[in-house]
Amino acid sequence: MKRNSRDYPEFYNWLIQPFIKKPHRIQLLRRLNRLLTFVMPGVYGLVFCWLFAKQVSLEKMWPFVWIPATGFVLFSLVRHWINFPRPYEKWEFQPLLEKRSSGHSFPSRHVFSATIISMCLCQLSLSLGLCSLFLSLMLAFVRVLGGVHYPKDVLVAWGLGILWGGLFLVV
Q: Is 148 helix (H, G, I), strand (E, B) or coil?
């Protein structure tokens, strides 16, 4: 059964009930969002520290730069072109995460970036990469719960991050 898009406010209200009933959970959600959005770029920086420590040649290090960079630029251009409104704009509700920007909801750049960073990490350590992919999924869930993205925004971003990260397998 296909759900009507007018049901989104009802779905979102159902989704956030555990947070509304216990407001301290809203603070936890906000802290988790902040933590994940700072940890993932930090992980990316650690990837380069590890590569330098292992004295990896610039030629072998190059994919760790160009794959995420080109993906981010192309992703940002497409997102800017689509310029889909955020849930709180379309439905006029107060999101749990503080966000003041408008548009550029689809797909989620935070989730794409976290996923492509995770794919970099997978090249160095599969177990750490998989843990990082789990964190990128957690970030996706937080962004939807926070009301700043629709589920499709984060799912498409995560999938595109996996696909673009697949370039590591062919270089």
A: coil
Domain boundaries, the chain: 5-169
pLDDT in tens, 76-107: 999 999 999 999 999 878 899 988 788 999 99
The model's pLDDT over 20-51, given as tens digits with 9 standing for 90+, comes to: 999 899 999 999 999 999 999 999 999 989 89
- Sign of the alpha-carbon dihedral angle for 12, 107, 38, 60: positive
Instruction: Write the burial class of residue 150 (CB in 10 Å: 0-12 exposed, 13-18 middle, 19+ buried).
Output: buried
Instruction: Give me the DSSP letters along 6-62.
Output: GGHHHHHHHHHHHHHHSTHHHHHHHHHHHHHHHHHHHHHHHHHHHHHHTT--HHHHT
Helices 151-165 and 126-145 meet at what angle, rounded to 10? 160
